[in-house]
Design a protein that fits this description.
By secondary structure, the protein is α/β, with parallel strands linked by helices. The chain is 34% helix and 28% strand. The protein has 10 helices and 18 strands. The protein binds flavin-adenine dinucleotide (FAD).
């Protein structure tokens, strides 16, 4: 069985704060590499197994988690107001992994290596200490060579220093079982826009698990957070009126909110501390998908450790795709559900593989051009123009702030050099 913190005298090569998607993925990538002998500690505040999340993602490559994929599909359906189409994915597959299975698999596989330990506890702080890093868990200090931090707090996003776009993506999901056969298990719904389009852009996705079982999720981008009852009312209407699934019972609920933002996320939090997962900005700002990006990131971190002896030498995010993200966020912020024609045109005018590569940030500039040419120009041009003006605003705000700071520094400098008046000499 695996080492314990006491046996290892509180000294680890790698300490991972948070045993969610990013923390566990990084641990698996480490033990799948020449670094497999290094000691790893994963600190998670709640090690109970619970199936509270489902990760869907598409890929045309194997992943480290193929053994625990719960369902795989080779087609996807998209339904927009004016058309509905089922796309064959070619060499892509759409996979679904349950958080329960990743947790179980990790708790079995990782400690069995002998050099990986799990610790249930709350990471309170992480700081550099000379050429090591100290992680404080429930008041106890544990020492490591490198620490990876996935403790994401929404406040990290809301307390932003520079102007940028941030919209929240709200999920309300149910895993349901129907009395009669209601679903085609071969065909998941990637996006169905027959949703309440209030202040934000709403859509459903539906992953059929059996003919009588499915995970149905209502997603709202932007707008105010829908109350639990509004989200559930939308789901009920979709299942009963739009899909006509008949009598059903809810087996499990899944909900959450994600910040879709183009703000920069610092990766380096200290000399020996690196942000990973959502905290490291691995959520794709325009899709809300992160799982596959986390896999690519974990692989890049391991490569950097091997080649540079430190984790930080990873490829930067593509400026081209950051720009597309900013444009779409700007359009969503301004027009809300009014951007629906953009999504319709995207799916109507392009092969699905091109769309998936675009969303994966893997398409070439030429492919991007073809895709952008298929979109209605109005909103994109508007977003482009106003993104320029918001960039200008941000530049102006920054330069004004820089001037204020400079003036303040000059005043302080002057005050510092002024001869101080001696008491009693003033008149
Ligand atoms: C409802 C929902 C559905 C999603 N669906 C998809 C999807 O289908 N496909 C996709 O690609 N992405 C999806 N995402 C986005 C993304 O993949 C997930 O949010 C993913 O879990 C992010 O991984 P993470 O490791 O950054 O965060 P998490 O998986 O949340 O892991 C962070 C871990 O840190 C632990 N932790 C926090 N604070 C402390 C502390 N102080 N001490 C110790 N431990 C701590 C938490 O308990 C948690 O286990 C979804 C997100 C949500 C909310």
């Amino acid at each position: 069985m695996g080492i314990t913190v006491t046996e290892n005298q509180g000294n680890f090569d790698f300490i991972i704060a948070g045993g969610g998607a990013a923390g566990l993925s990084l641990a698996h990538h480490l033990i799948d590499s020449p670094l497999r002998e290094r000691s790893i500690l994963i600190v998670e505040r709640n090690l109970q197994e619970h199936n509270n999340r489902t990760w869907g993602f598409w890929t045309n490559r194997p992943t480290l988690f193929d053994r625990i994929v719960f369902r795989t599909w080779d087609r996807l359906r998209v339904t927009c107001p004016e058309f509905s189409r089922t796309y064959e994915l070619g060499d892509y597959r759409y996979h679904m992994i349950r958080s329960l299975d990743l947790r179980r698999f990790s708790l079995q596989e990782l400690p069995a290596r002998g050099n990986v330990a799990f610790l249930q506890g709350r990471v309170e702080a992480i700081h550099d200490q000379g050429d090591r890093v100290q992680v404080i868990v429930d008041g106890q200090a544990i020492s490591g060579r490198w620490a990876f931090d996935s403790r994401f707090r929404p406040v990290d996003v809301t307390a932003q220093a520079t102007p940028c776009h941030t919209l929240w993506m709200h999920f309300t999901g149910w895993e349901i079982e129907t009395d009669a056969a209601a679903f085609d298990p071969q065909t998941p719904t990637f996006m169905d826009f027959r949703a309440p389009q209030r202040a934000g852009l709403g859509f459903f996705y539906l992953l059929p698990l059996e003919v009588r079982q499915a995970l149905a999720v209502y997603t709202l981008i932007g707008g105010a957070r829908p109350g639990a009852s509004a989200g559930e009312a939308a789901l009920t209407a979709y299942l009963e009126s739009t899909l006509g699934v008949g009598t059903h019972k809810i087996l499990r609920k899944e909900s959450g909110a994600l910040p879709l933002t183009d703000r920069p996320f610092p990766r380096r939090l200290g000399k020996r501390v690196m942000a990973i997962g959502l905290k490291g900005g691995r959520l794709k700002p325009t899709t809300g998908y992160a799982f596959l990006r986390i896999q690519h990131d974990s692989a890049a971190i391991v490569r950097s450790l091997l080649q540079a002896g430190r984790p930080f030498d990873i490829p930067p995010d593509s400026p081209r795709y950051r720009w597309y993200d900013a444009l779409l966020l700007e359009a969503l912020e301004k027009h809300g559900a009014g951007v629906l024609p953009v999504f319709s045109a995207l799916f109507k005018g392009n092969p699905i593989q091109r769309v998936l590569r675009f969303l994966d940030e893997a398409g070439s500039p030429w492919e991007n051009l073809l895709l952008i040419a298929s979109l209605p120009p109005g909103q994109f041009l508007q977003a482009l123009l106003s993104s320029r003006s918001s960039a200008r605003r941000s530049f102006n705000a920054q330069s004004i702030r820089a001037r204020i700071d400079k003036r303040r520094a000059q005043d302080q400098e002057r005050a510092h050099h002024l001869p101080t008046r001696k008491p009693g000499l003033s008149r």
